[in-house]
Structures are given as structure tokens and as C-alpha cells.
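sry for the spam today, last one i promise. C-alpha cells for design, 156 residues
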């Protein structure tokens, strides 16, 4: 009899695993996202390690990305636990921020090894908040490429 119980238990476990696999593939499809890539510069210099966020003006899906050493970013949107490369068609407010937890050397402008009590924003404030940012992006179907040329002395 113990041999039969093991077979029955194995059969039930197999059914549960199979059922869970079917459920994982079910559900509504994610939003129709469009590929978004771009470059961020500040005073003509590529900005690495900056966070770029697209916030919908009305309808849309918030998306974020981080710039690499060449200032290039690719957005990744999420809705719940589903991720997509880009965001949905629509108009967006764009923010760009870059924080450092280190003190900045006054001579070189580079981060030191000294930790700050609070992170310091390295981008001009106007680009870092939704309410102040002058940056806008209009996302259309297909590949979308943007270039954000920021100034350390932005004109409002």
C-alpha cells in the first residue's frame, strides 16, 4: 500500500504543477509598449548614471531608465509585475535626476570617498521634478529616439 500512496501523491503533485504552469500563461496581455531610447547631456557632456522618468501627461504608462557611460538610456515600463521595453503611445513629462551619496570635490567636481548624511542632487533642480521640468516627449508607434540637451543654467 505505501507504494500506491507515493504514486498517487506524485500524480497529484504533477497535476498541481501542470495547472500552475497553465495559469502562469493566462491573464490579460500587457500594455502595447513602444521602444524608447535616448541620450542625455548636460552642457554638452554625456551624463552617466542619471535616472530618466517619463510621466504621462494624461493617459499612458510611467516608465524609467538609467543612462550608461555614454549618456544613453532605454526605458522600461511596468504595470503590476509585467515589464515592457518602452512605454505606451502618448505625451509625457520627462524628469532627469542623478544623486550621489558622496561629497563632491570643489576643485575637480568629482565625488570623493566621504559619505554625505543625505544624497546630493547633481542635476539642476528644474529637471528633477514633474511640476518644474520643461522636458516633454511625444511617444508614437514604433521606435522612439530622444535627445535631452540640458543646461546647468536653464532658462525658464
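last one done:
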Amino acid at each position: 500500500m505505501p507504494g500506491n500512496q507515493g504514486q498517487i501523491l506524485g500524480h497529484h503533485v504533477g497535476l498541481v504543477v501542470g495547472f500552475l504552469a497553465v495559469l502562469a500563461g493566462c491573464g490579460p496581455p500587457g500594455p502595447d509598449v513602444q521602444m524608447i531610447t535616448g541620450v542625455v547631456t548636460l552642457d554638452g557632456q554625456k551624463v552617466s548614471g542619471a535616472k530618466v522618468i517619463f510621466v504621462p501627461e494624461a493617459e499612458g504608462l510611467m516608465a524609467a531608465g538609467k543612462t550608461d557611460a555614454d549618456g544613453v538610456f532605454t526605458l522600461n515600463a511596468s504595470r503590476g509585475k509585467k515589464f515592457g521595453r518602452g512605454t505606451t503611445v502618448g505625451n509625457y513629462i520627462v524628469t532627469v535626476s542623478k544623486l550621489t551619496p558622496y561629497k563632491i570635490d570643489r576643485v575637480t567636481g568629482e565625488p570623493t570617498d566621504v559619505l554625505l548624511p543625505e544624497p546630493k542632487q547633481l542635476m539642476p533642480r528644474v529637471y528633477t521634478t514633474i511640476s518644474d521640468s520643461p522636458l516633454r516627449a511625444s511617444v508614437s508607434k514604433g521606435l522612439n529616439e530622444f535627445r535631452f540637451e540640458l543646461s546647468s543654467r536653464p532658462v525658464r
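Helices lie at 2-25. ok im logging off now
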